[in-house]
UniProtKB/TrEMBL annotation:
It is found in: Mitochondrion. Pfam families: FAST_1, FAST_2, RAP. Keywords: Mitochondrion. It comes from the Eukaryota. Residues 592-650 form the RAP domain. This is RAP domain-containing protein. Its main location: mitochondrion. It comes from Pipistrellus nathusii. The keyword Ion transport does not apply. PANTHER family: FAST KINASE DOMAIN-CONTAINING PROTEIN 3, MITOCHONDRIAL, FAST LEU-RICH DOMAIN-CONTAINING. The keyword Mitochondrion applies.
């Protein structure tokens, strides 16, 4: 194992002959030490640093003696100060005799680069593995506010420079672990890939890969570092993946398996080429799920999404089982990735919903707005009517609406409309929303604003004060943008808002939507405001109607009305209540609209209609139809055709004694 002698490295230049780094600092001007080493380090970083004097106070035994002899302090006013190393002064012995666990425990207790450097400055020699660990810790704790560049005073520090110089000068003497760990640590910084340091380390790694001397873990670490430095087009990456494919998966640790997913995730265009290998990994991963941390579970699910592993549902289901246990321990970002994966794979279960409800309700006022939006998107996409979540989110929005961006506000409000739910504080919620729209109307992207207002109308919170604006030619032009025509979904939403203003807001006297922007039907294959009828349920009910009415002639199917809605079954009645053949268009006194509602027209596992179905039935009643609902959960209880006919007779004729057949 290579040892890095910190003192020797600080004085390896020709004009440093005194034994020990502190001796060199003691007998040379400080700016001389700085300039001698600075040239080796500065090219490694993108940031441009200006030269300047650097002095540092080492808490070291000989340094203390020097202070005592001179009767003053080396630290001038205004220069960087490294914090005390507390009781670490006792670490005067070499690390050859120091317990490795003690070293890493001390290292992990450091919370800043200054503390790390202060700690290792008390040591004379450092094994290369520990030196690499120290370098990695410096990079990890040095990240501040998302900026990966280390401060100038850390880069200038002689101890930090000594670590880097040793890795550049003697890479062949490093162990595999030290080599790849050092390279991984430096990728956490804004390091120039063309610098001597990086080129040297990468060249040594490539040499060892070609020799086949790197073990599984080192290959995984190296692959991720090369991806960060050179991207997925790196030629060495293909060789690494080839070698990993020929290793036994039993030799991989769970962390290596997760790293392997991340590596393959970075090359989604080659997924077909790696699919056989992925199938093996997916099968093997079932046996290690129980060992994964929340972070690893989130990363594995994300990789499965990127790699489109829709056939790996057993793995997704097993991961979901452990997600339930880890929900309180996910970061907001990790939980967001989990929800994205569940949306993608269509996964849901009551245990996950219960755990998610507990998490959101307990932290609703402190959750990040982005994760709140993601939770609401998940509930909306999976048609999950979770009243605890919806109530908690509504309360959070009323209390902290200023935290949400226009996009997040739309993502938060739309599920209330889709799921056809008004929270207990609905009046406060929509009053707050109206205030925001009055103040920031122009801040909302046109399509986002239209979706938001349309969703409000689904639950009878009609945006009357804004209808004139969205029907105006100016807004419609903005909505269309640079396209040659307005998309069909937007036109359908505008048309339904127009119909709402006529049927439910007769007091509205503002501008109307021009006919050229209106659609003729709300039911279309790609972007529908109605849910198509369940085919099997429709066929079953149709046979019952034939037996009840005597012939297929007495009802029509999938009738498009003049009011844009499509009726599943329409029955016409004359003035005396007799059923007319559907071909008759005269003497029609009443029309009965049968809504044959399958499971997809309801919230998941409930009897609660979705918003778009509720507004349809509401509008049909206002248009004069007698609406008769035939829900799937009633049909499922019927055991024979006779029971079906009796059920249809009760539904149709008990509501209107005047109907005859």
């Amino acid at each position: 194992m290579a040892l890095i002698t910190l003192r020797r490295n600080l004085c390896h230049f020709s004009d440093f002959r005194i034994n020990g780094a502190l001796g060199a600092l003691k007998n040379q001007p400080v700016h001389h030490v700085h300039n001698a080493v600075k040239g080796h380090l500065y090219p490694w970083f993108f940031c441009s640093l200006q030269p300047g004097p650097f002095r540092v106070r080492f808490h070291h035994a000989c340094c203390k003696k020097f202070h005592s002899e001179n009767g003053n302090d080396l630290r001038p006013v205004g220069e960087p100060v490294f914090p005390p190393v507390q009781d670490w002064d006792s670490f005067e012995q070499n690390l050859e005799h120091m317990d490795e666990q003690v070293f890493y425990r001390r290292l992990n207790n450091c919370t800043s680069p200054e503390e790390v450097l202060g700690f290792i400055s008390t040591l004379q020699t450092l094994p290369d593995t520990m030196a690499a660990g120290a370098l990695q810790r410096i990079c990890e704790v040095g990240e501040k506010d998302g900026d990966e560049r280390l401060p100038k005073e850390i880069i200038d520090n002689p101890v930090f420079q000594a670590l880097c110089v040793q890795f550049e000068q003697e890479p062949s003497n490093l162990s595999n672990t030290s080599l790849v760990t050092a390279l991984q640590a430096l990728t956490l910084l804004c390091v120039d890939p063309q610098s001597n340091l990086l080129l040297t380390l990468v060249a040594e790694c490539q040499h060892r890969v070609k020799r086949g001397s790197l073990e599984v873990h080192s290959l995984c670490v190296l692959a991720e570092s090369l991806l960060k430095l050179e991207g997925p087009g790196c030629t060495t990456l293909g060789l690494i993946i080839y070698q990993l494919q020929h290793e036994k998966l039993e030799d991989f640790t769970p962390e290596d398996i997760v790293a392997l997913y991340r590596i393959l995730q970075a090359c989604p265009e080659k997924v077909d080429q790696h699919q056989t290998f992925l199938n093996k990994i997916n099968s093997f991963s079932l046996s290690i799920v129980y060992t994964l941390s929340p972070k690893s579970i989130s990363q594995m699910l994300t990789a499965l999404v990127v790699l489109d592993q829709t056939h790996a549902l057993p793995l997704v289901i097993k991961l979901a089982k452990y997600v339930v246990r880890h929900i309180p321990y996910f970061t907001d970002k990790e939980l967001g990735k989990v929800l994205e994966a569940f949306i993608y794979f269509g996964h849901h279960d009551r245990f996950f919903i219960t755990a998610l409800e507990q998490h959101v309700v307990s932290l609703c006022l402190t959750l990040d707005p982005e994760i709140v939006s993601k939770v609401m998107e998940y509930c909306s996409r999976k048609r999950i009517l979770s009243k605890p979540i919806l109530n908690a989110v509504a309360e959070m929005f009323v209390c902290h609406s200023e935290k949400f961006s226009p996009r997040q506000i739309s993502e938060l409000i739309e599920p209330f409309g889709k799921l056809n739910y008004l929270p207990p504080n609905a009046s406060a919620l929509f009053r707050k929303l109206e205030d925001i729209l009055f103040t920031h109307f122009n801040s909302f992207p046109p399509k986002t604003l239209l979706r938001l207002l349309h969703s409000c109308s689904l639950i009878e919170c009609h945006p009357v004060n804004f209808m004139g604006k969205i029907f105006s030619p100016y807004f419609l032009q903005k909505l269309q943008g640079e396209e040659s025509y307005l998309d069909r979904l937007s036109r359908a939403q505008l048309t339904q808002l127009l119909l709402t203003s006529i049927l439910e807001c007769p007091f509205y006297k503002g501008p109307k939507l021009l006919p050229k922007y209106q659609v003729k039907s709300f039911l279309t294959p790609c972007c529908s405001l109605e849910t198509p009828v369940d085919f099997h349920l429709y066929k079953y009910v149709m046979f019952g109607l034939i037996d009840l009415l005597g012939a297929r002639l007495y009802f029509a199917s999938k009738v498009l009305t003049p009011y844009y809605y499509t009726i599943d079954v329409e029955i016409k009645l004359d003035e005396e209540g007799f059923v007319l053949p559907f071909t008759f268009h005269e003497d029609v006194h009443k029309r009965v609209a049968l809504c044959i509602d399958g499971p997809k027209r309801f919230c998941l596992n409930s009897k609660h209609l979705l918003g778009k179905e509720a507004i349809k039935q509401r509008h049909l009643r206002l248009l004069g139809y007698q609406v008769v609902q035939i829900p799937y959960y009633d049909i499922e209880t019927l055991k024979s055709k006779l029971e079906l006919v009796e059920y249809l007779q009760r539904k149709l004729f008990s509501q209107n004694a005047g109907i005859c057949w």
